[in-house]
Write a structure and sequence with these properties.
This protein is α/β, with parallel strands linked by helices and 228 residues long. Helix content is 25%, strand content 26%. Bound molecules: S-adenosylmethionine.
Length: 228
């Protein structure tokens, strides 16, 4: 018998009750293969659908935008953005080849090829040649990257570098509150970044989605981080 954790496919449906005939899609289904017994990156964390819904509600702004997802895991938000016409780069820790391979699988299951989505290793706080070759970025996205204080400064350092090279860009970060004692405020100050909380209480209402149901029992926040 194989020791490989069993894979199952989770379906996420993004729809709209709007009846206008704009060019934005009004229904997208995304299939995410997950392996529950594997590591962090093989499971879709509760923040990911929240970020995906936020992007869905702003889908008219996505076509042609260069989007970079950090710590993508199963990459639900990035895959949705690509389906809405963004030019997407999905990244994961460069030392997790199986996770990078799994992102490729998630893309393939959704009919996205190498031409439509780029997948590359990007380890927070580490500056490899590939980090300098990421190309232009309009929007950085990250779901549940701030999951452990030991990685907070590494993420902030990477985001600060990416925003230095793309000063017009912003970082949309959705995170699940795990401890009221955790804070990134001093790091934002140290790395000269500005942060705003974006309210998400009405997210999904356009589609008849109850945000509280989507969050289950978690407290989830959306931050927009830019250069100071
Ligand atoms: C809590 S999971 C969130 C995964 C996914 N974004 C989601 O919301 O479903 C954290 C992710 O960060 C990745 N990660 C952890 N440390 C990292 C690092 N130093 N550099 C880049 N990615 C890292 C993990 O592999 C994992 O995919």
């Amino acid at each position: 018998m194989s020791d490989e954790p069993t894979e199952h496919i989770k379906k996420f449906v993004f729809n709209s009750k709007k009846t206008d005939t704009s060019t934005s899609p009004e229904l997208i289904e995304i299939l995410i293969p997950e392996k529950l017994a594997a590591s962090y990156s093989f499971y879709t964390w509760p923040s990911a659908p929240i970020l995906a819904w936020f992007l869905w509600e702003h889908r008219a702004e996505l076509p042609g935008k260069h989007i970079l997802e950090l710590g993508a895991g199963t990459a639900l938000p990035g895959i949705l953005a690509a389906k809405c016409g963004a030019i997407v780069t999905l990244t994961e820790s460069a030392v997790l080849p199986k996770s990078l391979q799994h992102i490729k699988r998630c893309c393939e299951v959704n009919g996205l090829t190498n031409n439509q989505v780029r997948i590359t290793g990007l380890t927070w706080g580490l500056f490899l040649t590939s980090t300098f070759a990421l190309g232009p970025i309009d929007l950085i996205i990250g779901s549940d990257c701030f999951y452990d204080p030991s990685v907070f400064e590494d993420i902030i350092v990477t985001v600060s570098f990416l925003l230095d090279t793309n000063p017009q860009a912003r970082f949309l970060s959705v995170y699940q509150e795990r401890s009221a004692d955790w804070s990134i405020e001093h790091l934002l100050h140290k790395w000269k970044l500005r942060c705003e909380h974006i309210p998400i209480n009405t997210l999904g209402s356009e589609s008849g989605i109850d945000i509280n149901e989507l969050m289950h029992d978690h407290t989830i926040h959306l931050l927009e981080i830019t250069k100071d």
